[in-house]
Amino acid sequence: MRSIAFLAALSFAVPALAAEEAAFFGAPLTVAEATPLSEALAKPEAFAGQVVVVEAVVTKSCKKKGCWLVLKDGDSEVRVTFKDYGFFVPKGLSDRRARVQGVLSRKTLSVKEARHFLKDEGASKEEIKKVTAPVESVSFVASGVALLPKS
Q1: In whole angstroms, what is the distance from residue 21 CA to residue 151 CA?
Q2: Quick check: 98 and 132 in contact, CB under 8 A?
Q3: How far is the C-alpha of 133 from the C-alpha of 6, rounded, in Å?
Q4: Exposure letters 7-30 (e unless 16+ CB within 10 A, then b)
C-alpha cells in the first residue's frame, strides 16, 4: 500500500484544454440523468448518501493544484472536492458547464480548513483572517467530472 506522502509527491499533470473540447476527469459518470444543483442543494438531506449527478457552471477552482472546484446554479453554490484526492481538474478553471457525479453531505469546515480553501482560491489575507469560527456547509465529493464544451 502506498503512503500518503508518496501519493502527494506524484505529479498529476492536467493538460490544458480548448474551450470547445469536452474533458473528463476521475471515474466515468454512470448516472444518466442530472439533477439541477439548485434542487439538490435546496434539500440536501433527500440526496444524502446517494450517488447523484449535478450540472452547473464552474465559478472557481483551486489555483494551486486543481484539487477542488465550485459549482453555481442561480443562487445555489457548492464546493466540490475529489474522492480520495484521486484526480485534479485544470487550475483556475471557471465559466465552464460541468456534470459532476458524487455524494452530497452536510459538513462543518474547521477554521483551518475554511482558511485553506480561501487561500487556495487566492483570497486576500484580510478575507482569510475574517474566518474565526467553523463554517457549516454542504459538500460534494465527486468521483468523476465532465467539463462540457463551450457553445
Answers
A1: 10
A2: no
A3: 33
A4: eeeeeeeeeeeeeeeebebbeebe
The grid coordinates of residue 8 equal 502527494
Q: What residue spans define the domains of the chain?
A: 22-147
Q: Say whether 147 sits in a helix, a strand or coil.
A: strand
- Residue 10 corresponds to which amino acid? L
Close Cβ partners of 71 (under 8 Å, ≥ 6 residues apart): 37, 54, 56, 57, 58, 59, 77, 78, 80, 98, 100, 140
pTM given for the model: 0.77
Q: Report how far residue 83's alpha carbon sits from residue 66's, in angstroms, rounded to the nearest whole number.
A: 13
Q: How many residues does the chain have?
A: 151
Residue 148, amino acid:
L
Distant-in-sequence, close-in-space partners of 28: CB < 8 Å, separation ≥ 6: 144
Cell of 123: 483570497
pLDDT digits (tens, 9 = 90+) for 4-26: 443 343 344 445 555 567 899 99
> Is domain 22-147 classified as CATH 2.40.50.140?
yes
